[in-house]
Specification:
436 residues, alpha+beta, 8-stranded mixed beta sheet, 14 helices, binds 4-amino-1,4-dioxobutan-2-aminium adenosine-5'-monophosphate, binds magnesium ion
């Protein structure tokens, strides 16, 4: 084929290429033939297009190739664009050259296969329209997070992934052999961020995060991406406001760039638009229990963490994400300080998403009280010595500070409206799966 410029399918679907002779390249999405005609659907990154291959319109050898080509073969096509109301999308390519790049073997994925099978075939299933749409949206979300923080005066700061101690409780640490010693995979960037704010003041990061979560839920991954921020001179209220702004900004960016993908996923665009312009309420844990008691007749003992089912029932009363603050201090990580106005609760928050997507953000103000943190770490069986460097941060010009972490896959799953978090990450790792 002499052509050196390649047209993308989305350009044809705008109608602006009708009547033109042009070249396309991609993969065979579907194909069927009858006699002297082959109907194929070509796929590229931008969409799908019907291509009609008629004997006589192209060299015989190329027609024979087209007839025997199986799905997922890679091809280059030359042809004329015609409007055709019967074709999906309203346009088709009448092919004058069918240049096979690589004949595919029979593709292992057919219709209606089980989620587990599709996870085994993840390397091939990434080509599906569903995952294509999810990962385009994920790309927008990741870009939006960087943009949000950079435009608001935050520096990107990276922390080690190999960390000698816990941040979020020892029970979910992944142990790693480190020469002849042991260390752990990062549960959070936070403790190192707390060191860096004394230099950079406002910082953020997004990176792989690891939790040995034994729970087999649709919300938990063993490896996920967390987007975190930490700010000097900030309190709990300040960071809840930043989190609300961040989530709204992410939504607006997705609505700006990914309407087509949201439609493919069957997501309700109007609903997301409304959320992106709404005020997100803030309530306390105690108020959440009150709502559950008064509206649902659900009794939860004060002091118990909200279980996912309880979060879901609570969120039936809200259309937007909700910030819940002041959880009982007893069930909180060692670095979350008591609220001086209500010391049995912590200066902490979760942001819960509506419609059963649960906690998408978790954060807090940070304790400045070395003795209190030591006591709480000891109670968890931790070696205090490991945290000495962290306590130094309270010894040399300590300032109030706060931060939070946003679960990237939780946000992707919620915005896409997909039913399992595993489809929000490329190659999911869970308690039962670490392949391919
Ligand atoms: O609430 P978490 O545990 O908070 C922290 O790790 C803090 N140190 C963050 C900070 O203050 N800098 O985790 C933050 C978020 C959760 O709200 C959730 O969205 C997500 O990370 N997350 C998970 N996502 C997928 N799978 C898991 N196993 C997750 N655990 C937490
Ligand atoms: Mg949390």
């Amino acid at each position: 084929m002499p052509q050196t410029s390649w047209t993308k399918i989305e350009e044809i679907l705008t109608g602006k290429k009708t009547g033109k002779t042009l070249s396309l390249r991609g993969w065979i999405h579907r194909t069927r033939s009858s006699g002297n005609i082959v109907f194929t659907i070509l796929r590229d990154v931008t969409g799908t297009l019907q291509a009609t291959i008629k004997k006589g319109n192209l060299p015989d050898k190329e027609f024979e190739d087209a007839k025997k080509t199986l799905i997922e073969s890679s091809v280059e096509l030359n042809g004329v664009v015609k409007e055709d109301k019967r074709a999906p999308g309203g346009y088709e390519l009448q092919v004058t050259n069918f240049n096979i790049i690589e004949f595919a073997e029979p593709f292992p994925i057919a219709k209606d296969q089980s989620p587990e099978f599709l996870l085994d075939q993840r390397h091939l299933w990434l080509r599906s329209q569903k995952l294509n749409s999810v990962f385009k949206i994920r790309s927008t979300i990741v870009g939006a997070i960087h943009q949000f923080f950079r435009e608001n005066g935050y520096y990107e700061f990276d922390a080690p992934v190999l960390q000698p101690s816990q941040c979020e409780g020892g029970s979910t640490l992944f142990e790693v052999k480190y020469y002849d010693k042991k260390t752990y995979l990062s549960q959070s960037w936070q403790l190192y961020a707390e060191a860096a704010i004394f230099s950079l003041e406002k910082i953020y990061n997004m990176g792989p995060t690891f939790r040995a979560e034994k729970s087999k839920t649709s919300r938990h991954l063993s490896e996920f991406w967390m987007a975190e921020m930490e700010g000097a001179w900030m309190d709990l209220h300040d960071v809840t406001e930043v989190a609300k702004e961040e989530v709204k900004f992410i939504l607006k960016e997705v609505l700006k760039h990914n309407k087509r993908e949201l439609e493919i996923l069957g997501q309700d665009i109007k609903k997301l638009e409304k959320i992106s312009k709404s005020k997100f309420p803030t309530i306390t844990y105690t108020e959440a229990l009150k709502i559950l008691k008064e509206k649902e007749n659900k009794d939860i003992t004060w002091g118990k963490d909200l279980r996912t089912t309880e979060e879901d029932i609570l969120m039936e009363h809200f259309e937007t994400p909700v910030v819940v603050t002041n959880y009982p201090i007893e069930i909180m990580a060692f670095y979350k300080p008591p609220d001086p106005k209500d010391p049995k609760t912590a200066l902490c928050f979760d942001m819960l998403a509506p419609e059963g997507y649960g906690e998408i953000v978790g954060g807090s103000q940070r304790s400045l009280d070395i003795e209190n943190m030591k006591k709480r770490l000891k109670a968890q069986g931790e070696k205090i010595k490991n945290y000495d460097w962290y306590f130094d941060l309270r010894r040399y010009g300590s300032v109030p500070h706060a931060g939070y972490g946003l679960g990237v896959e939780r946000v992707v799953a919620w915005i896409c409206g997909i039913d399992n978090i595993k489809d929000a990450i490329s190659f999911p790792r869970t308690v039962l799966r670490f392949r391919p």
